[in-house]
Structures are given as C-alpha cells and as structure tokens.
Amino acid sequence: MKRIVVLLMLVVFSLGVHAQNHKGDSSFGLNLGYGFDSENVTLGLDYRINFTDAVRFAPSITHFVKDNGLSAWMIDVNAHYVFPLSEYFGFYPLAGLSLGFWKASAGGWSHNDTRFGANLGLGGEVYASKEITLGLEVKYNIVKDIDQALIAFRVGYNF
C-alpha cells in the first residue's frame, strides 16, 4: 500500500500543475463514500463553483445505497474555504445545509421521512492535472435522530 501511495505522489508531483482555485472556475465530480452510522455505501454527484480564489459553493446530491432496508437521497448545499497548501494540494473546511429523504422498509412495512440538517467537515484535494482533481472529504451530518459521520472519495473534472 505504501508503494502505491508513494508512486501516486510522485506522479502527481511530476505533472507540474498549479492550484485550481481561481474565481469563476467550476468542477463537476463523482463521489464514492460511506455513512458510518447507517452503514450505507454512498454514491454522489457534485458541482463546485469558485466565487473567489478561496470561497466556493458546492451543491451535491448523494444516494445512500439500500442496506438492511434503509436507503436515502441527500441534497447538500455547502460552502468551502480553500487553503492551497502547495500548487498540488488544497485543504478546506466546509459548512452547509442538507435535506435528506430517508426510506426504511422491512417485509411489507415501509416508512418515509424527510429531514433538514447541517454539515460540518474537512476536505483535501490533489490537483492531478489541469482538468482532474482527486479528493477526500469527511463531514458530520447533523440531523435529528440520524446524525452521522460520512467519508467520500471524489474524482472531479475542472473547467
């Protein structure tokens, strides 16, 4: 595993790219993650647009794949404050709002619940090329009776 990480870092550092945080830049991304309390795998789509070189708006939609009769769709609207730590890596805290549509079912019984909540978290991204960004994001989704930590790996296309 260490060899793979070192090899990935060498490839990234040899690309000669610069931080991708400029006012007006946008990114579209695909996410694969996990919800720790619900134990659901997550699949998501997001769009990011930079309002300034440091502040960006990041709406997303995430599907919690059905597990043990529980599934959900979550719509998030987050803001990121990006700290470019080098020309290859950026770090950001995030905060935002969420709206979740939860469905629980077992046998012939089914229950739907819609919940409003908030997100707090941290993320990091590697600028693999001018067009491609790889990232990892950890956030805590604060929702009545359904609080949980989430982690997601992101591949983004910058334009």
How would you describe this structure in keywords?
159 residues; mainly beta; Porin; eight-stranded antiparallel β-barrel; 1 helix; 9 strands; elongated
Structure summary:
By secondary structure, this protein is mainly β. 8% of the residues lie in helices and 68% in strands.
Q: How does this model look, in words?
A:
This protein has one helix at residues 2-14, and strands at residues 26-35, 40-50, 55-67, 70-81, 83-84, 89-106, 109-127, 132-143, 148-158. The protein has one helix and nine strands; from the N terminus they run H-E-E-E-E-E-E-E-E-E. A hairpin with a 2-residue loop joins strand 3 and strand 4 (70-81). It has one domain (2-158): Beta Barrel (Porin), CATH 2.40.160. Strands 1-2-3-4-6-7-8-9 form an eight-stranded antiparallel barrel. It has 159 residues and is mainly beta. The longest helix has 13 residues, at 2-14.
